[in-house]
Structures are given as structure tokens and as C-alpha cells.
Amino acid sequence: MGIPQPAYYIFKCEQSAPPGMPKPSCVTPQTQDIFQHLASTLMQQGVMATVQPIRSSCLNRCSAGPVMLVEPGHTMYAGLTKEKIERIVTEHIIGGNVVEEYLIDSEMWDEPISPADMKKQMGM
Ligand code: FES
Hints:
Blueprint: E1 8-13, H1 34-44, E2 51-56, E3 68-71, E4 75-77, H2 82-94, H3 115-121
Parallel strand pairs: 1-2
Antiparallel strand pairs: 1-3, 3-4
Helix pairs in contact: 1-2
């Protein structure tokens, strides 16, 4: 038997905007320890070996930040807090049920376009 793949990858946006920039960002002084809280929650729950948290760059949904993407599933969570992280780990990552009330607004997260269709749209 080989080394098992992770069951989940969690991409937490770790982009911060320089002070004074009008564009919102996912990391501010108030939210800067959310990634660490995600990692320690996974550790406390004993699932770190099968869930890989990843610090990502901007996921292009800055106005809904802090955001994180759970794969597989293309599940995008928005407006994160430490409390929300704990519930997502317990109910979604361990329990298998997406926490619907923390999802990004569906207007901001519509169905994906396949790369082949994207090429067609671009006339390439
Ligand atoms: S800064 Fe996090 S999505 Fe853009």
C-alpha cells in the first residue's frame, strides 16, 4: 500500500494589501492569524495528516474576504472568522457536510467554464 493522498486541500488566501490601499484583502491585523488557527484546529482534531492547508495568493474574491477554497468540491467560504473555521472543520472536513451559511454568495461563485470553452469564447 502506498502513501495515501490527502482527502482535502484547503487553500486559504493569504494576500494582504499595503496600508491605505482601497482594495480589500484577506489578511488584515484583525484576521492575520486565521491560517494558523486553521492549522491548529486540524491538528487538534487529529486530521492534519489527511488534510493539507495551503497558504495561497489572491483567489480573486477579495471583497468577500477572508476567503478559503476547499478541494475537492470547489467550495469557497467567505467572511471567515476563527469560529467559522472551527465549524467548517468539524461539519464539512470531518462530517462531510458543507456549511451552507458560510459559503460565498452564489453571484460571486458561478459554475466554472472549462478551459476548452474558454478558448472558444476568446476566439482562439
Ligand atoms: S486578497 Fe484574498 S481573494 Fe483577493
